[in-house]
Amino acid sequence: QAANIPPKVRFDEDVVPGGRSISIYPVIVCGFIVGFVAAIMGVGGGFLTFPMFVYGLGVSTFTTVGTDILQIIFTAGYASIFQYAIYGFVFYTIAMGMLVGSLVGIQIGALTTKLVKGSMIRGFYAVVILAGFMNRAFALPGRLASAGYVEMSKSTSQALDLAGLVIFFVLVGIFAVWVLVSFFRGLGQIRAGAIGESAGVGH
User: Fold this and answer.
1) What does DSSP assign to residue 53?
2) In whole angstroms, what separates CA 44 from the centre of its chain?
3) Contact 23, 7 (CB under 8 A)
4) Is beta strand 8-11 parallel, antiparallel or unpaired with respect to 20-23?
């Protein structure tokens, strides 16, 4: 945000008095990185968009989540249709099942961002990344053994894989429960219509 290079775009006007502004060029660079990774890995890019926008560009958590969901419609749709579907690499039955679940999940997630503090959402993101790193770290010895770089019994390798899997789901599960508990506690605010305009503040 400190780079005073026109043209600039304004955002977070409902979060910070007067809003914030940033040069369009860092946003384009972030979009390029997210699009590239989304195309080659089949991910929405949220795990990249979140840290780049929140920590790199200074965008609020609330705005980052909404913006990322919008851009996924176009980037993921284009990549799916023109890069994979026309070559027969899309499993439509599974995709429809995921779509049904996603429609429910995204509604709950959108409400959660209004009821849960931005710091908690950022903490959840950090825990997920840490859990994924630990999961891969536990799996690494087995992969090295399979490649012939180290000697390790198959039972030991399987035990490490299982340990990494358990650690991943325990860490993510604990924090997910914490977030969900905060969400259900705040449902009373929704019923009472008490979600004020300050919902995004601090995000």
Assistant:
1) I
2) 8
3) yes
4) antiparallel
pLDDT value of position 27 = 84
Q: Angle, to 10 degrees, between the axis of helix 61-78 and the axis of helix 118-146?
A: 50
**The dihedral sign for the CA sequence 189, 47, 120, 139:** positive
Asked if residue 2 lies in contact with residue 50, where contact means CB atoms within 8 angstroms, the answer is: no
- What pTM did the predictor assign? 0.52
Rg (CA), the chain: 20
Q: How far apart are the first and last CA of the chain?
A: 17
Mean pLDDT by 10 residues, the chain (203 residues): 71 73 83 75 65 80 78 75 76 80 77 72 76 81 81 86 88 79 72 51 48
Q: What is the pLDDT of residue 160?
A: 87
Q: Which residue shows structure tokens 């560009």?
A: 57
CA distance 138 to 165: 9
Q: Let me know if 99 is exposed, middle or buried by CB neighbors in 10 A (0-12, 13-18, 19+).
A: exposed
- Interhelix angle for 154-185 vs 118-146, to 10°? 170
Cis peptide bond upstream of 51, omega within 30: no
pLDDT at site 161: 87
Q: Give dist(CA 81, CA 86) in Å, integer.
A: 6
